[in-house]
């Protein structure tokens, strides 16, 4: 036998043994016992598993709990409801509008429910006719380049590919869009028309909300006429009862263990401590800030170059994608709400849906503290909508404050004017309202129920994964501005990012939750295809990635096509971002032409659109004669529209076409992905 000291040899005595020893008998008994136990135990487990199926418990108290059946029809029937309001929402507004409609249904003896089409079997729409005086309403946003929202994608494809008989289905549609974009409310318009084609009955004409103007006004005006049409169609009358019933009830969670309390996670409890791939909108990656540097050379404005470290995350991105950043509200604003309402922000609470059939049990991850809710989950910096004004009335002790809120909550011309001037024009958020109407003291849990969710912010990625596979770069302007009431409003995300400066010592680096959103903004498949890029200001961001990718291909020895960039800013010596990089790409031949417009370096302002008009021959040579691609990134309201007009004009003149032919040519370019836009309003 071996031990630590070496080898020890023991003397042995050899004796004659019987054929079957006591040890053999013992082993045989053990084997028989184990076999018997295994056989009957397995049988018992098998039978018990048939009686009690294995279930996976939700990983967090806030996760969306679904019933065992996705049939919204069964829910409607079992709860005596006749109204269902579906929403297709990317930022939460459509969901909010859906909730308001469902709540108002009670005034017309139509008990309603809100439903996410992603969680429902939408084929059950054919059974709506089985419910007396039933109505389906769709609040649908159009997203990106005329795309359905993520949660409405399956429903949209079902409508496109299916041929269900929807005779007997009564419906109405309200669309949420933005007129600065080409595909204004395209998805809502399609759904409205397609439902009719499949035999459904339109109870009220489609409503089109414009977020570039006043979508709240559009919605309220449409909603009023909707109920008039509903009364006429079903032969019913308004009860006149105002429904101020709370959707959520307050639950005291002071006894909940600390490890069961949310502290800013989006969905899964402790997800930032225990990160799990894949990362997405409900499970963001907590990225370290690797670089945060100023790009502007002088002046009172700031533009940041920020690099998110994704090394080890397994996250992959493509040039042209977007990165979503989850911000948090400033502690100053959060503390101000606590001060104005004399509330304990560190009290732990939960909001539980009073509708037991609803799949959405909480408005945000619960339980948490009020401080956490106001910091991470609720939007406290945007302009509140009219329904919040209405809910605040009961909390006003001063008659003057009451009357002001009543006026702004009304749909009268005077009320709309007051809301537009006092809320929208003066740019008041909920903190400003509570400051300027000091007698208004809402219960903090009710306020948390009313406020919309804080949304992530999207940024065009300004790097190429070929060159930077372990990091994601963005280019962001710091947002700060003074309102008509002499308050300084600060951009939620950019002001947070400005504070996240990496250190050079052993201290932990600052972090922020992110995920990658795929985009259709892509370089041509062939590197030889010539391209024109138009990106003033931070519109340069995705083109920095495009240029990096083509430069990488050139260095690998591949042939690359012409790359023409139009860039503009105010002053060359102030906000010409990435100047040295761009000049280097020109010098090494990756960037064929660099057209620069500095709007304030001369008496007459000069923009990229002026340069585009001057270079009509070059433009037509690339997009007309060489079938190249054209890209636009930046402001949708004016710049992108002006560029589109110039493109059509150049195609007309250089291509010798009529206006109609030129418009069709440009439209075909868009369909072929030869004309792409990544714009915002």
TrEMBL record:
Q: Which UniProt keywords apply?
A: Endoplasmic reticulum, FAD, Flavoprotein, FMN, Membrane, NADP, Oxidoreductase, Transmembrane, Transmembrane helix
Q: How does it sit in the membrane?
A: Single-pass membrane protein
Where is it chiefly localized?
A: endoplasmic reticulum
Q: Where are the transmembrane segments?
A: 20-39
Q: Name one Pfam family in it.
A: NAD_binding_1
Record domain FAD-binding FR-type: where: 282-524
One biological process term from GO is: response to hormone
* SUPFAM superfamilies, alphabetized: Ferredoxin reductase-like, C-terminal NADP-linked domain (SSF52343), Flavoproteins (SSF52218), Riboflavin synthase domain-like (SSF63380)
Subcellular location per UniProt equals: Endoplasmic reticulum membrane
Reaction catalysed by this enzyme: 2 oxidized [cytochrome P450] + NADPH = 2 reduced [cytochrome P450] + NADP(+) + H(+)
Does the entry feature the keyword Nucleotide-binding, yes or no?
A: no
Q: What is this protein called?
A: NADPH--cytochrome P450 reductase
The note describing how and how many cofactors are bound reads: Binds 1 FAD per monomer.
Molecular functions per Gene Ontology: flavin adenine dinucleotide binding; FMN binding; NADP binding; NADPH-hemoprotein reductase activity
């Amino acid at each position: 036998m071996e031990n630590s000291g070496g080898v020890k040899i023991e003397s042995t005595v050899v004796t004659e043994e019987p054929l079957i020893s006591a040890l053999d008998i013992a082993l045989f008994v053990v084997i028989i016992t184990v076999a018997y136990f295994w056989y009957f135990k397995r049988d018992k487990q098998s039978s018990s598993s048939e009686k009690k199926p294995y279930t996976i418990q939700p990983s967090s108290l806030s996760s969306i709990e679904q019933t065992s059946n996705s049939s919204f029809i069964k829910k409607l029937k079992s709860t005596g409801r006749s109204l269902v309001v579906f929403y297709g929402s990317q930022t939460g507004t459509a969901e909010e509008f859906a909730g308001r409609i469902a709540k108002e249904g009670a005034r017309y003896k139509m008990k309603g429910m809100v439903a996410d089409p992603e969680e429902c079997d939408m084929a059950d729409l054919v059974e709506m006719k089985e419910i007396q005086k039933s109505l389906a309403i769709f609040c649908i946003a159009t997203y990106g380049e005329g795309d359905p929202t993520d949660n409405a994608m399956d429903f949209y494809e079902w409508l496109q590919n299916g041929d269900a008989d929807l005779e007997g289905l009564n419906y109405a549609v309200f669309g949420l869009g933005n007129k600065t974009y080409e595909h204004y409310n395209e998805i809502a318009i399609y759904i409205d028309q397609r439902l009719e084609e499949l035999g459904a009955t339109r109870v009220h004409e489609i409503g089109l909300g414009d977020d570039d103007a006043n979508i709240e006004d559009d919605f309220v005006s449409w909603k009023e006429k909707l109920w008039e049409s509903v009364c006429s169609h079903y032969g019913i009358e308004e009860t006149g009862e105002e429904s101020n019933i709370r959707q959520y009830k307050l639950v005291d969670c002071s006894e909940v263990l600390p490890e069961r309390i949310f502290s800013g996670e989006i969905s899964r409890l402790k997800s930032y401590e225990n990160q799990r791939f894949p990362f997405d909108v409900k499970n963001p990656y907590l990225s370290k800030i690797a670089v945060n540097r100023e790009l502007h050379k002088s002046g009172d404005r700031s533009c940041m170059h920020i690099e998110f470290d994704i090394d080890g995350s397994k996250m992959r991105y493509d040039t042209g994608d977007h990165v979503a950043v989850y911000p948090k509200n400033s502690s100053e604003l959060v503390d101000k709400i606590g001060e104005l309402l004399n509330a304990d922000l560190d009290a732990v609470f939960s909001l539980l849906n009073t509708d037991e059939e609803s799949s959405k049990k909480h408005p945000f991850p619960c339980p948490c503290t009020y401080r956490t809710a106001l910091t991470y989950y609720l939007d406290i910096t945007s302009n509140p909508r009219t329904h919040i004004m209405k809910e605040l009335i009961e909390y006003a002790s001063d008659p003057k404050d009451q009357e002001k809120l009543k006026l702004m909550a009304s749909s009268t011309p005077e009320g709309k004017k007051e809301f537009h001037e006092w809320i929208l024009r003066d740019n008041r958020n909920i903190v400003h309202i509570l400051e300027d109407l000091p007698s208004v003291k809402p219960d903090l849990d009710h306020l948390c129920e009313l406020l919309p969710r804080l949304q992530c912010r999207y940024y065009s990625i300004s790097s190429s994964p070929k060159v930077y596979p372990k990091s994601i770069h963005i280019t962001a302007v710091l947002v700060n501005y003074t309102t008509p009431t002499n308050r300084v409003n600060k951009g939620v995300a950019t002001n947070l990012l400005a504070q996240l400066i990496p250190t050079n010592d052993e201290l932990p680096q600052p972090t922020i939750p992110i995920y990658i959103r795929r985009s259709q903004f892509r370089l041509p498949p062939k590197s030889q295809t010539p391209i024109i890029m138009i990106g003033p200001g931070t519109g340069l961001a995705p083109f920095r990635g495009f240029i990096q990718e083509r430069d990488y291909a050139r260095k690998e020895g591949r042939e690359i096509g012409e790359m023409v960039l139009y860039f503009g800013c105010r002053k060359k010596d102030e906000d010409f971002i990435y100047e040295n990089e761009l000049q280097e790409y020109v010098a090494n031949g990756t960037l064929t032409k660099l057209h620069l417009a500095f709007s304030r370096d001369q008496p007459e302002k000069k923009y990229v659109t002026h340069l585009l008009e001057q270079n009509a021959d070059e433009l037509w040579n690339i997009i007309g004669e060489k079938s190249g691609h054209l890209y636009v990134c930046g402001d949708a309201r004016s710049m992108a529209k002006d560029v589109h007009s110039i493109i059509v004009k150049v195609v007309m003149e250089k291509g010798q076409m009529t206006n109609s032919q030129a418009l069709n040519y440009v439209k075909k370019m868009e369909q072929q992905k030869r004309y792409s836009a990544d714009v915002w309003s």
